[in-house]
Structures are given as structure tokens and as C-alpha cells.
Amino acid sequence: MFAASTAIIARAVAAVTLTAAAALSPSTIAHADPPATTVTVTGGQIRGLAADGVREYLGIPYASAARFAAPKPAPAWAGVRDATAHGPQCPQSPPLPYVPALQPSSEDCLSIDLYVPENAGDTPLPVMVWLYGGGFVLGSNAQYDSPTRLVREGRVIVAVPNYRVGPFGFLALPELAREGAATGTYGTLDQQAALRWVRDNAAAFGGDPANVTLMGESAGGMSVCTQLASPGARGLYAKAIVQSGACARSPLVPPSLDRAYQRSQDYAASLGCGEAATRLDCLRAFPVERLLDSPTTRLDRMDITWTPVRDGVVVTDTPEAAFSAGAVRQIPMIVGSNADEGATFLALTDYAQGRNPDAEDYTAWARHLFGANAPGVLARYPVGDFENPAAAKEQVITDGFFACPALFTTAAAQRGGATVWQYRFTDSPLPDNPLLTGAFHASDVLYLFSSLQGIPIPLDPRATALAHRIQDSWARFAHTGSPRTPAHDGWRPWQPADPTALELTGAGIEYDDDFTAVHRCDLWNDIAGIG
Length: 531
Known about the structure:
globular; alpha/beta; single chain; 15 strands; 18 helices
């Protein structure tokens, strides 16, 4: 299982709403040159830009990276560094074979972007650190370049770091463990280095280093959970928001070291680096393109290779177990999922590959993913209960990979002493189309950011009102630890005896108390893991 690329989502949105997107495209919008602004941070001075009530500081180095090694401090610079353009993305394969690279890439990719309200005032502001999704094989901070209203109206600072993905971020080998102790967690260590940079530099931007909210979607949500479970991140955050994170029982859960070793050894052997004595030198000698020449680095399959690893150093337990044991005690959390998560995965793994799954495909897919649990899954999701096999597959993905893992994450955190607000996002941002329907995976991201990868998101007035409600609740949570606003005044923390979830819908304010039944979580509760 993996997270959907927001770059693909953005292009799908642009395709479905072609006229509106063209009318609003960056090339047709006239901007006056905004004033520059200068700040001193670790490493030296930077100069950003101010526009629309927000100051932007882009491409700031927060650490430096060497291949298959923990990040190190970024070198200082002389003079004033320009911080008006995103840094390069970390190495990754294109989202799909026929989609070109979305921006330049480099192994020297550990930069952070900050968005700060103008005229912040004298009171230190909350900082919200967004960790991007992309299945741990894709993503960059440039994709999330417009949290403008959240920052300006919510009076928060938003920081978005790059972190390494694919084998660059998560290769796990015994020789790497002997070399540096941590292995398979370099991307996780990148995120921690970014959090330490935020702690050390938040005050320079008017932020409060003691009031940091971790937030992320999909693999970014799983990253939030991983940091909450990691001893090395303690004290670097105060609150957490997990959007479609699949933090429990899913294939994104950090595997054991032995399983991670086997995955990485298989990957190395597939590239011709099969000898244990030489494979690390072999992999380090390859150019970037050779390391990416593997199906494991592409976002077109449900099988995954690259995730954070339980290496016993950086990650010592699964999030679900760590939460139950008290790792998130007294931490306020928001946890949620979307009503139609599976639609995105059908688009990526079937439709984009020229397949429309039939009953035979659906059965074979279930047997491959669920093994001994496949008969139970197929019995609860028989093709005859759905419009077609694709719809059955979509519901299995929604329930088993996202909705119920969100519930299990909430329950574990609540058992361990966290205060958790649960939601279910049900709005459909797109008109009827053959590609993405309903509240598909990553559709909620369109309601936090006004554009993705520079492509404006033309939400209709009803969806815009919902976007404002979500932004207001998220900002309120960053300020106070509670997402309750006048619009969401009835949203209560989740309790086993009162398992209420807020329905985030454009139709009005609704609360859901039948989440377990709707998503068949009794079935998934008896399945220890997927994939």
C-alpha cells in the first residue's frame, strides 16, 4: 500500500476542470513584485518575499545528505542567501511512466519552506510542520506552496521540509547498521533534523518553538505517526494531525529489521549488487538514475518496498503499539480518513495502466494481498454486493487500508492517554468524471492548500466554505489543542463509549457514530497486517 501523489491529483484536477484551471493558471495571473524581507537563521541570513499577507522563505538548507547516511548539519553561507525559490526535490521516479519529472532533483535536497503571516505581532505563533505524502517514493515541499489562507487567517506559521524517499531514504542493510547504527530510517532522520531546525529557528520568524503541530497526509500522516513513536523526536512537537495516515495494520507500518533487510537485499540483487561483501559499494557507485531503475520506486502498485523501518535505533516500535504504551500521553491529536480513498488507487494501479478489473482480477488481487485472510475479505465484500468488481476493490481499499486503520490509530492513542478528535472527510471536490470520484484519497489536501505544484484548485463556493471550516479548525487546534470552532462546536474527543467522528462535508455539520459498521472494522480488527 502506498500514498497517492499530490502531483497526479493536481493534474487530474486540472484535467477535469480544464477551463477554470486555464483561466487561473500561473502564467495568466499578474503579480506586482512583492517586497523582500530578511531573517537570520542557522547558517546565515536569508531573504524571502512577501505577498498576499504572507511572507515566504523557500529552499532554506536545514541539513545536508550523503547517500545512505544520516543527515548532517548544513554548511553556513556568506552574505544574504536568496530564499525565493523552492530547492530541488529529492531523487524519485516520475509519478507515472508518461509523466515527466515535475522539478529538478538532487541528492542535496534537504531544504525547508516557511510561510509566515505578515505583521505577526508580539505573541509567538504556532508552527505547523507539514510532512508530504507520496508513498515514501514521491513528494516534495514545492507541491504544497500555497497554505495562504491557513497562514494569514489562522495566524500560524507553516513549514514544509523535504525528506529523502525511496532507497535514498529507506534502504536497510546489515552493513549500513554496522556503519552508522541506524538503517532504513534516513528519511525519518531527515524529518527529525527539520524539526530540530524549526525548534532552533522558529523564534526568528515570530514562531513559538514550544508549540509545534506535526501534520501530514497519507505517507506524510504515517510519517507523523512514526515521529510520535520515535524516541528521537520527543520534545520536538506538541500536537499532531494525521490525515489518511494508515498508521495501524497497513503495509506502511514500519516492518521488522529482518523483513526490511530482505526487501533491500532483493532490491540490490535486482540491480546486480547481490554480493553481500560488495553490494554497498556497488550501490553507492551507481548514478541516481540507476538506483531509480526499479519497479519498487514507482507509484503503480500496491506492493511496497520503501517505508521507515523498525531499526531499533530511530524507530523502536510500531505506532499502534507505541501509542497504546503511552508514547502520545497528553498529546492532542486529530485523526481521520476519506470516504472514498480507494478511488485514487484504482486510478493509479488499474485505469492508468489500461486495466478495468473484472471479477477474476479482483479475486486474484485479494488473494495476493491478504493471503490466508482473503476468503474472509472476499466473503464480506462479494462482487454481487457492488456495482462492479472495481467498486468492490475500491471499498476494500477504503476500509482496510485507511478508514479502519484510522480508527485503530485513534483507539490506540486514546488508550495511551492522548486526546483524539476523529473525522471522516466526505466531500467531492470534482464534478462527475471517469477518473476520480467522491472523497478520493488526497482530496482533502485540496481544502488546505489553494494550489498544488502551482496549479490552482478551483473549488466551488460550497467546497470553499468547507475548506475555510477545515482551515479554521486546524488553526484553532494549533493554537489551543482543540479543533472546536463555532462551526464545529459539537465535535467531541473520541471515546470507546462515544465513538463520534465529525463528518467534513459541504452539505452541513454532521456527526457520525456508526463508523465501525460502515467500514466493516470488525473484520479488519481481526487482521493483524496487510501486505
